[in-house]
Amino acid sequence: MVPHAGYVYSGPCAAHLFAILHSNIHRVVLLGVNHRGKGHRAALSPAEVWETPLGRVQVDVKLRDSIESRVDFVKTDEHSHRQEHSIEVQLPFLQQVLERFTFVPLSLSFLSLEECAELGAAVADACREESGSGTDTIVLASSDLSHYLSPEKTDELDKIALEKVLAMDAEGLLRVVEEKEITMCGVLPTAVMLYAASALGAKNSRLLKQCHSGDVTPMTKVVGYASVAIEH
User: Among 5, 99, 120, 168, fewest CB within 10 Å belongs to which?
Assistant: First the structure.
């Protein structure tokens, strides 16, 4: 799990995750949040290439199609990716640390617990099918944490959400985010990632960095960030 705010605010936090990636990673399933709720609620990008200032990145069409074929509610829809930053801001980091990779952009909104579990299992199955053990593929969830609260309240609520992430408890994460009204925008991508990681045999979790926007510029209302690694 990695944040997706402006680089000046969340970039240093995100860098803790990207710094530990190995060069033998060749595929990335990049789960983003559809902030505006436009287009289909579980949408793959129809594009074959995405472009950043650092160059072009190929979409893994075979892996994309494999995921789509496994889940009825996943569709290819460009509208869900328009004017959305949660996926694209991760690509320059990946371009810097990985020698060569393809990726699958998947934008999410309005999923139930059961659908998160189904999609996570499908992502894991597709990764295994396309790359054997799946060890050359990572599943990356793009998410910020609490939004526009005091630093103290942000730390309090983010700790609650992160406890569930670190416990790899997707169901518990969805529950506490709803019960405590935690404004974690990428809770669905994170839940899907946790289900996929468990299906791929991940056993360990690490909190790499936690901070908020007020650590960069003093402010009374902040946004929380964290980078978390889920590993074998």
Answer: 99
In the chain the domains, ranked by start, together with CATH numbers, are 7-231 (3.40.830.10)
Question: Cα 223 to chain center, whole Å?
Answer: 17
Residue 222's Cβ-side half-sphere holds a number of Cα atoms within 13 Å equal to: 23
Tell me: the pLDDT tens digits for 177-203?
Answer: 999 999 999 999 999 999 999 999 999
Alpha-carbon gap, residue 29 to 63, rounded angstroms: 9
pTM of the model: 0.97
Length of the chain: 232
Largest CA distance in the chain: 49
Q: pLDDT digit string (tens) for 129-156?
A: 877 655 699 999 999 999 999 999 999 9
d(CA 210, CA 161): 12
* Dist CA 36 CA 107 (whole Å): 11
CA distance 207 to 229: 7
Question: How many Cβ atoms are within 10 Å of 216's Cβ, its own excluded?
Answer: 16
In this prediction, residue 99 has a pLDDT band, given cuts at 50, 70 and 90, of: confident
CA dist., res. 56 & res. 49, Å (int): 6
Non-local CB neighbours of 10 within 8 Å, separated by 6+ positions: 3, 4, 144, 213, 223, 225
Q: How far is C-alpha 126 from the geometric centre of its chain's CA atoms?
A: 17
Local structure of residue 208 (DSSP, 8 states): E
